[in-house]
Design goal:
145 residues; mainly alpha; 5 helices; 68% helix; flat; transmembrane; membrane; DUF1468; DUF1468 domain-containing protein; transmembrane helix
Length: 145
């Protein structure tokens, strides 16, 4: 696979994100730009990167080392599971589990990944929920938080 193929894929993703994000509207006055600004800005950045890869591309890309494709597929599976379980489990539990499994993919030990994931998810929850006033789902910990 070369850079130009990746650039075309990035342009297709940007087009899909633009189409999906264009119709996002909040049912109430939210912020000056509204909720559609984030996906559209991401689509713009991805599209520009895709154009750059198409323009400068043509270079052959080295093959992944043995086992890397399986780790990439697992990482994608973890991200999909995280998205589906986020609301039900809540931010703290879902983020802790995601951090543990991703940490293990990168060679971390179970205990270090578990402690790091738990501490990180609790600190991020406190930062977003208490300091930045961003409401995150509490999920299974609703009675404790």
């Amino acid at each position: 696979m070369n850079d130009r193929i990746l650039g075309v894929a990035a342009l297709a993703l940007a087009a899909f994100m633009t189409a999906a994000g264009w119709g996002i509207e909040a049912p109430f006055a939210y912020e000056p730009v509204g909720p559609r600004a984030f996906p559209l800005l991401l689509a713009l950045i991805i599209g520009l990167c895709g154009l750059w890869l198409i323009y400068k591309g043509g270079h052959q890309v080295e093959a992944n080392p043995p086992g890397a494709n399986a780790r990439i597929a697992l990482m994608m599976g973890f991200a999909v599971a995280y998205a589906f379980l986020f609301q039900w489990l809540g931010f703290v539990i879902a983020t802790t589990l995601m951090t543990i499994f991703v940490g293990r993919l990168f060679g971390g030990g179970w205990i270090k990944c578990a402690i790091g994931g738990a501490v990180m998810s609790v600190l991020f929850f406190l930062l977003f929920d208490k300091v930045l006033d961003v409401v995150l789902p509490t999920g299974l910990l609703e009675t404790l938080i």
